[in-house]
C-alpha cells in the first residue's frame, strides 16, 4: 500500500500548526530516502523538534483527524486515528538489549539520527521548506551505492538490523562498506523473533529486482549456514553442463530467484509462493547428484527438494499457511512441465496435476516456476536469461485447453445428485470421489452417465464384499 491521497497535505497543515507553537516538523527515515531516489514511498514518519510529547499530542488532536493514539509513548510515538503517519519526538536510547529511552525535544538532529540503522535512513527533510538535513552523509552513500551505519555500537544492539541490511542490499542494489560488513559478520542475530525474520525475507523476495543480492550478503558475511543452512551444500554441487552451463546449483538458484522476481504478478501470496519455491526448488540436488557414464544426473531430486523445503518453509514462513503449502507443492511438482512435454501428456494428466496443486497453487504458477528455472541457466553472467521456452509455451497452451490453468476442473456429480440413492456419509463421499476420478480420466461430464457408472460399480463391489447393498 502506498500513501493515500491527502496524507501529505494534511501533514503540511499540521506542520504549520506545529511551527506556530514553536516546533519544527521533519520527514524522517524511508520517506526522505525514497524521495531523493525518486521512488514512491509506502509510509510516512514525521519527527517534531521543539515541542514536548503532550504539546504535540494537543496539536495533533486539534486537526480534526481523530484521536492521537499512544502507539509508543515510551518511545515518543503518536498516531492519529484518521491519518496514516507516525509522529515522534526525538529520543536517545541507552545501550543494551533493553535500552532506556529518553525523549528529548531539544535534541540536535544529528544526535537523534545517530540511533538509526543506516546513513541513508538518517536524513531529515523539513516538511514546510523541503530542506534536507544530512548529518551522517546518507545522500552521498546513496549516490555511491554504499550501506553504512552512523554508529556501529548502536547498530549491533538490534539484531533485526542484520536482516534489514540483507533486504536493503538487494532492494537498493547497494553493498555494505567494510566496517558495516565486519559488524554484520560478528553481531548476534539469533534473538530475532521468527516472525520478524519472515517479514524481512518477504521484503527481500517481493520488492527487490535482484533478491540474489540479499542471499549473497548472507554468504559473504558468513551467516548463510546460520540462516539458510539448506543452501550451503548447493555451492559444492555441480550440474550437467549440457543442461546447466551456468555452473553449480548455488549459482543456478540465485539466477532462478532473480528470474522469479521478474515474473511477479502483484498478488502478494502468489508472488511469495513463487519466490520461495524458486529458492527451494533444487535443495535436493546435493543428496541426489550422481555421475553415470560421464554425465551428471539428479534422479528424483524434486522429492528430496520438497522434503528439505518443508523444514526451511516451516522455519521461515510461519504467518501464512497458504504461502507455505503452495510453495511446497510447487517444489514437489517443478519437474512436471518438462516431463509432460516429453510424454506429450493429455488433458487427463493436466487435470490430475491441477488437483495436486490446489487449492493453494495452480498450473499457471507452476509454469512461472518452470520458466524461472529455464531462465536461470545463463553462462555469461550472474543474471538470468530473458527468453521464452517452447516447452513451456506448449505446457501453458495445454493447461488452458484443458480448462485447468488457474484451478482444477470442478466435479460434475454432487451430493444432491445422489438424493434417493445414498444417505449422506462416508459411502456417499467415496462414490463422489470415484465419480470425480472418472470425470477427470475419461472426460465424462454428464450427470446421468456418471451416476450410472458409480452406482453400478459400487453396487457390484459391495455385493462381492458381502456388505449391505446401497439403497
Can you tell me about this structure?
A hairpin with a 4-residue loop joins strand 3 and strand 4. The chain folds into three domains: 1-138, Beta Polymerase, domain 2 (2-Layer Sandwich), CATH 3.30.460.10; 252-409, no CATH class; 415-464, no CATH class. The protein is 49% helix and 9% strand. Helix 17 (336-343) packs across helix 20 (390-401). The strands form four sheets. The chain has a seven-stranded mixed sheet. It has a two-stranded antiparallel sheet with strand order 6-7. Mean pLDDT is 92; it is low at 458-471. The two termini are 57 Å apart. It contains 22 helices and 13 strands. With 471 residues, it is α+β, with helices and mostly antiparallel strands. The longest helix has 18 residues, at 447-464.
Which key phrases capture this entry?
single chain; 471 residues; alpha+beta; seven-stranded mixed sheet; two-stranded antiparallel ribbon
SSE topology sketch:
Elements: H1 7-20, E1 24-28, H2 30-37, E2 45-49, H3 53-61, E3 68-72, E4 77-80, E5 86-88, E6 91-93, E7 101-103, H4 109-113, E8 124-126, E9 132-133, H5 138-144, E10 146-147, H6 152-155, H7 160-171, E11 175-176, H8 178-186, H9 194-207, H10 212-220, H11 224-227, H12 249-261, H13 268-280, H14 285-288, E12 290-292, E13 295-297, H15 301-316, H16 321-332, H17 336-343, H18 347-357, H19 363-375, H20 390-401, H21 426-442, H22 447-464
Low-confidence stretches: 458-471
Spatial separation of the terminal alpha carbons = 57 Å
Total separate domains: 3
Q: Give me the secondary-structure category.
A: alpha+beta
Classify the beta-strand content into a percent band.
5-15%
- Round the Cα radius of gyration to an integer and report it: 29 Å
Amino acid at each position: 500500500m502506498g500513501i493515500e491521497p491527502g496524507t501529505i497535505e494534511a501533514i503540511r497543515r499540521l506542520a504549520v500548526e506545529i511551527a506556530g507553537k514553536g516546533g519544527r516538523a521533519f520527514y524522517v527515515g524511508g520517506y526522505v530516502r525514497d524521495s531523493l531516489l525518486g521512488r514512491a514511498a509506502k509510509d510516512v514518519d514525521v519527527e517534531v523538534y521543539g515541542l514536548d510529547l503532550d504539546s504535540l499530542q494537543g496539536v495533533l488532536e486539534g486537526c480534526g483527524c481523530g484521536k492521537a493514539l499512544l502507539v509508543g509513548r515510551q518511545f515518543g510515538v503518536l498516531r492519529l486515528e484518521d491519518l496514516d503517519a507516525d509522529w515522534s519526538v526525538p529520543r536517545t536510547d541507552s545501550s543494551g538489549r533493553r535500552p532506556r529511552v529518553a525523549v528529548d525535544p531539544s535534541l540536535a538532529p544529528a544526535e537523534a539520527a545517530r540511533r538509526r540503522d543506516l546513513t541513508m535512513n538518517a536524513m531529515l527533510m523539513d516538511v514546510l521548506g523541503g530542506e534536507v538535513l544530512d548529518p551522517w552523509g546518507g545522500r552521498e552513500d546513496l549516490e555511491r551505492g554504499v550501506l553504512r551505519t552512523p554508529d556501529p555500537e548502536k547498530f549491533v544492539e538490534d539484531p533485526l538490523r542484520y536482516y534489514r541490511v540483507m533486504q536493503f542490499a538487494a532492494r537498493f542494489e547497494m553493498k555494505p562498506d567494510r566496517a558495516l560488513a565486519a559488524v554484520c559478520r560478528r553481531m548476534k542475530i539469533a534473538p530475532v523473533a521468527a516472525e520478524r525474520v519472515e517479514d524481512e525475507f518477504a521484503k527481500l523476495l517481493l520488492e527487490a529486482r535482484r533478491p540474489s543480492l540479499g542471499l549473497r550478503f548472507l554468504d559473504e558475511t558468513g551467516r548463510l549456514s546460520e540462516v539458510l543452512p539448506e543452501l550451503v551444500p548447493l555451492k559444492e554441487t555441480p550440474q550437467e553442463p549440457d543442461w546447466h552451463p551456468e555452473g553449480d546449483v548455488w549459482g543456478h538458484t540465485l539466477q532462478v530467484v532473480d528470474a522469479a522476481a521478474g515474473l511477479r504478478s502483484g498478488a502478494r501470496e502468489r508472488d511469495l509462493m513463487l519466490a520461495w519455491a524458486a529458492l527451494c526448488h533444487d535443495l535436493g540436488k546435493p543428496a541426489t547428484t550422481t555421475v553415470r557414464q560421464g554425465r551428471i544426473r539428479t534422479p528424483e531430486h524434486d522429492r528430496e527438494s520438497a522434503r528439505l523445503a518443508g523444514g526451511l518453509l516451516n522455519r521461515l514462513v510461519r504467518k501464512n499457511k497458504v504461502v507455505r503449502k503452495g510453495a511446497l507443492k510447487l517444489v514437489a511438482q517443478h519437474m512436471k512441465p518438462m516431463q509432460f512435454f516429453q510424454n506429450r501428456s493429455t488433458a487427463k494428466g493436466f487435470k490430475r496435476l491441477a488437483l495436486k496443486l490446489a487449492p493453494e497453487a495452480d498450473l499457471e504458477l507452476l509454469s512461472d516456476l518452470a520458466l524461472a528455472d529455464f531462465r536461470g541457466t545463463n553462462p555469461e553472467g550472474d543474471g538470468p536469461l530473458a527468453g521464452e521456452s517452447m516447452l513451456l509455451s506448449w505446457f501453458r497452451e495445454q493447461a488452458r485447453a484443458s480448462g485447468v490453468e488457474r484451478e482444477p476442473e470442478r466435479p460434475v456429480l454432487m451430493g444432491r445428485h445422489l438424493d434417493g440413492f445414498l444417505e449422506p456419509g462416508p459411502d456417499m463421499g467415496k462414490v463422489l470421489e470415484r465419480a470425480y476420478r472418472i470425470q477427470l480420466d475419461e472426460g465424462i461430464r454428464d450427470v446421468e452417465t456418471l451416476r450410472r457408472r458409480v452406482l453400478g460399480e459400487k453396487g457390484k463391489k459391495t455385493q462381492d464384499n458381502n456388505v449391505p447393498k446401497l439403497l
